[in-house]
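Note to self: the last two entries modelled the partners one at a time, which told us nothing about the interface. This time every component goes in together.
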Amino acid sequence: MDTAFRKIDIDIYDEDVLQESELYEPFPQDAAQALDEAKQRQSAVRSALAKGDVPGALSIALENAPYGPNVEDAKVLTLQTILTILNSTKSTEVSSVIKALSQDSQDALMKYLYKGMAMPGWGDISGSVLLGWHEKLTEIAGVGSIVRTMTDRRRV
Amino acid sequence: MPPSVFDLSQVPITAHSFNATRDQLAVSLNSNDAVVYARTGNEWTATETLAEHDKIITSIDWAPNSNRIVTASQDRNAYVWQQAPDALTGALVWKPTLVVLRINRAATHVRWSPKEDKFAVASGARAIAICSFDTENNWWVSKHLKKPIRSTVLSVDWHPNNVLLAAGSADMKARVFSAYIKEVDERPAPTVWGSKLPFNTVCGEYTSPNGGWVHAVGFSPSGDVLAFANHDSSISVVYPGGPIIHHIRISTLPLVTLTWTAEDTIIAAGHDCQPLAFSGNEGGWQLIGTLDDSKSSSAAKSGFNSPVGRLNSSAFNTFRDADTRGQMSPGGTGGSQDTKVLTVHQNTITSVRAYEWQGDRVAKVSTTGVDGNLVIWDSDEVSALTTSAGNGLAGRLGGMHIR
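The predicted structure of the combined assembly is written out below.
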């Protein structure tokens, strides 16, 4: 059977088509502002890590996570910051760190775990670290958090 | 009292609605027909088939006072069914009247207004058809609520004042509209949602917290509070004054249907196969427990304490055996053929509705779902969520270690 018709983009013939931008509020900052803030957060995270405050560092990094199509640089920097924290946390401490996060931060962390796993070659982080965090986070925040990661169009 | 379980069919039940006296029931068994069941003792027997739609029926509502059934279907039509004597036998049979909906996509949900002089049909055509009876022409006519809906409307619910309508939609928004029809309605008294209410006034627009479709909406018994359940595993409660909006994010799979049982309690259910109870007031809302005390259900005896809990299904075991032992056998191995899940409903609950009142509280609710079961629950028998039974899959996943 000919199935080529399935590939026709019928939306271009619809003048009232639902646009991606209508589905969520745009990120409030422009690219430069967002990058600035991501850099500030990165240094705040470094000083928190130096004090050994992993939950604090993670909360700072997950706060006001940049999303949307226009802030790529800030998104990459934030991901790197978070991956550094994840990498440097002892596996025995993971549960207590996650429990110290707010529900919003837990949901944001789940987004970054999936983003990390979607990176080509998984970035510069080993898969077992991400999977270890994912396992513990799912135990604490539940599959509801995974569902929210899937539905949320504010992609980090 | 433990919940009463009726095994109506082996196929999913898409919608159910009882008559006023609760001795008859209209359901759609995932087909083009609606079936009317009558209760004798503890048995439900099919008495009549309402066949007129030519695509799957998506929603049914039975008006308690005027004893009329309305059905909505993917064939873009709605029919109002009324009992009339058959020309040949004289027996009462259900006769359909076509409603001119004027929509070009499937009808998804239908509800009679409290006074039963109107009904609202939600649809995939980014519109809600408000239907009222035109006595001059002797047919049902419709008027469309369109703006500012951007996607399929998945559910509707009427305000007790017969004018306001809540709608949940796949554009991640729950809205409150005025569905005032000049020919039918008297001027409504002002409510917390507004005072001047011409047709299609948008009295409120609320977004789900994490971008989930709004599956279900419901006004509280007074009509002053709105609740909606979202596909991002959350339920939201709106007090329009501020507006104050409480989002409760749950740890389990999304809820798809809800009903208020009192001004301070909501029963909601969905993909987690058990009805959950929420309670609160303007200051805050929380999940208080489940109606599904799995210890009382027969399913609980088998493998309730297994580390994987509900995930102890043959599909799960097949994957686990393949993963940890390198065994490949179709349909699971050894004594793990038990495919029962540990809840009363064996699959997603698609509809929860008020069943019995005690004063102004709903004492019992009825649920139907993809497993083909009808269950009637005592809405006050809320048991706390325990780690293994409640707390959803989070608790159950607890014992599942990826090695």
